Input
Amino acid sequence: MNVFELLSEKGHEQIVFWSEPELGYRGIIAIHDSTLGPALGGTRFWNYASDREAVIDVLRLSHGMTYKAAVAGVNLGGGKSVIIGDNRIRDREMIFRAHGRAVESLGGRYITAEDVGTSVDDMEFVRMETDSVVGVLGGSGDPSPVTAFGTYQGIRACAERQYGRASLSGRHVAVQGLGNVGRNLCGFLAEDGARLTVTDIDAKRVESAVLEFGAEAVAPDEIYGVDADIFAPCALGAVINDDTLKALKVDIVAGAANNQLARESHGEILHERGILYAPDYVINAGGLINVYGELHGWTSDRSKRKAQEIFTTLLRIFEMAEEDGVPTGTAADRLAEERIQRIRHLQRSTL
Output
């Protein structure tokens, strides 16, 4: 594994490896770009098959955070961290205090928060060692409700673009994943009058959604072939791939999951098929906005109002994509890169 080659591929600034074997801690922190501000990104606790897989994941995720912050219009860079191990472990204090020491070593260049496999309680342990952590108790807390609200606004923007009206009343939405974000999203969709088909690997979550929202349930592998208006992936990434593309029977793909496209070319295929795709790092930026609000002392209402801007941001991206004749993901990347370059120019002009 040539780490420097991996760093240079997407222009990463820094990667930190931290090990405290006596505590069972092995962590990696990646900073992609700090042009807009300190790099922010959650901590993912995952049992990676290899160190290389962990490195590639943290680099990929941190790159996405740079673009997410740029498009969301917040003054943060992109970073991410991963802890290698079994996230079901019960004795978590020492592991997360070790992680806090790794974060603190960066002197404020990186700010962490919860992510897959971690919780608000875990961030309390991190806070014992560093102030560079958000989403803690007494702060903004769980970002899931704001992430779901922003995703809901993004789905409304897709409906506005595809159908001429933002209302989801009578629209059929297939929701994949009923974790904290997916479940909250179902609440917003149901309140707007959408018809829901849901799935999750946890049968209890599915049963609860059926009872609360009147949703129809399907097996996890069947969600891709549901004849619906909108497919909302809210679980893990790479769900839009060679196999699932053949099964999709929807007009829109818009959900909260990160890295939904297995390959960039899959976005081009969606574009060619006339399926409107909401770039994941744009539509799911509500969580980032929530923790940014915590850093600046925003009220929850202000964070929610900022997340509502995802509606207009996506409409702008859809217009750019149409004007340039490119997939929506390409248009979103251009918008992010444009903001980063302008800030760099601004910084150079004030030196």
In short: The longest helix spans residues 51-72.
